[in-house]
Amino acid sequence: MNTDPITLEVLRNALQSAAEEMGATLTRTALSPNIKDRRDCSTAIYTIEGSLVAQAEHIPLHLGLMPTVVKEVLKFFPVESLAPGDAVIINDPYISGSHLPDVCVISPVFAGNAPLAVVANLAHHVDMGGAVPGSMSTTATEIFQEGLRIPPVKICRGGRVNQDLLKVLAHNVRTAGEFYGDIQAQLSANQVGVKRLQELAMRVGVETLQYYMGEIINYAERRIRAAIKELPAGVYAYTDYLEGDGITRDPVKITAAVHTGEELVKVDFTGTSPQVKGPVNATRGVTLACVYYALKAVADPDLPASEGIARVLEVITPPGSLVNPRFPAPVAHANINTAQRITDVVLGALAQAVPHRVTAAGTGSMSNFTIGGKDGRRQRYYSYVETYGGGQGAKYNQDGMDGVHVNMTNTLNTPVEVIEMNYPLLVERYGLIPDSGGPGEFRGGTGLVREITVLEDATVAVSTERNVQSPWGLRGGRPGRTSRCLIRLPGDNACEMPGKFTREVPRGTTITLETAGGGGYGNPFDRSPEAVRQDVISGLVSKTAAFEDYGVMLDEALQVDQKATANKRDKGGRHQS
Predict the structure, then answer these.
(1) pTM of the entire structure?
(2) Are 246 and 278 in contact (CB under 8 A)?
(3) Any idea where the domains of the chain sit in the sequence?
(4) What is the pLDDT of residues 513-527, one digit of tens each?
(5) What beta strand segments (E) does 261-306 contain?
(6) d(CA 220, CA 308)
(7) Which of 318, 303, 364, 307 is CA-nearest to residue 339?
(8) What is the CA radius of gyration of the chain?
(9) Residues 390, 422 contacting (CB under 8 angstroms)
(10) C-alpha count within 13 angstroms, C-beta hemisphere, residue 35
(11) Order of strands across the sheet with 102-111?
(12) pLDDT digits over 449-474, tens only?
């Protein structure tokens, strides 16, 4: 069959639209705020072999590792062994590549009796059992402490839900009602995908649709090969560190050597620390997702993601290392922290090759904030789970965005009203942090702060990074401000906490989490005085920082004092890096 470029583009968009509709169904029908409001979920479409064809624009980490999940599940349940109406559920990280709260549901698509494709979605459930509410203990030392592990099993047979299995699973989580609702939403999302693909097959024919699914992947491969030819050939190495594993604060090394040249990129993590005792070990699936993202972001950010990207990559992850641990190492916070640091390392290496295409370091963590316990108002258990944004690193000709998720995550925030309506929590403060973005010709984005008071005794788990090591700048840009977490017990003064901790707190305790800002790009004294003035007006930069960091003097009316500014910049060495 000959490939028609117009048909290719029409079907590519049709499949993309189907994946997006799956995502809309999932978020609109889910019960927990984590999926319904924050959209901590992802949806995608695959060939019958498990190759990624189209995905909704959700979470890069999920979407990068879901092909690993689907291919592994198809080893247990080949498409030929499945029937219309079947669905498989899984959350085991040593098969699926994620962490236990991320539950994946996979469904085959049939045209008549013949397998046509596979649809799947992955959603972060607010509790999967384990030692603490939210199943995200920072002190777990083996995966058994992190919650219930689900191997690949059929949750549906011929369209009938396995209620006995659901009862067993729900019996082992704290928030059974939300669990039931979110699983049903996941099944419904897949049903929408199945229906849309069957309709598409009826319009264009099964053979044509499957052929063009393969051609979409081939097209992506051709584009990414052309893009990486533009990268300067060489070996670029970079090293960064996690600030402890949750058990100790000892730095954990992540190093990567990126080999570019011809039409293949090799990323070698040899030299990375061995797997650690605490829950920051990243499965190979997570590591692959980070590499896929970093390469796409630098080489061809507009390229629709598909299996084609994986065809140009060789990734070496030494077994038993932090980036490819052996069972039963705990992994819950690898998604939160290690994934972001892996991405930072790969981007740091690529910045040596193409600095104008890479952002400075961002907030460096998904900054997980979990509070759980018994809600006395409703006499039931609850788990508040949220990941917080921070500052995006600046890049050539562009400031970093303020208070957003960066790199491997793309969730929304939970509105204050939703938090207070659903949980025994009071939000005292929520906003951006002035002067937290790294100064530069292009300013790093600011971090954000959320301050919450618990109205019942609770268990709190916080996991963040860049608490000690600031997010780095590029090309003379300065680092962003570090993160910080404070706890104030009733009647006591605020106490600063490490970046990762789990503890019980009494009612009336206030927890404050400040996320890190992004690094700046370029010499701060080369920033436009008017841009600095606008930052001050917007409350992102103080007048003091405007003068000290940027050399811009503002009068009482917030107008630029041209003479004082020129004098400060001349003395400060305006064109020094």
Answers:
(1) 0.94
(2) yes
(3) 5-223, 359-522, 529-572
(4) 999 999 999 999 999
(5) 265-268
(6) 5
(7) 364
(8) 24
(9) no
(10) 32
(11) 52-55, 41-46, 114-124, 102-111, 87-90, 153-157, 160-161
(12) 999 999 999 999 999 999 999 999 99
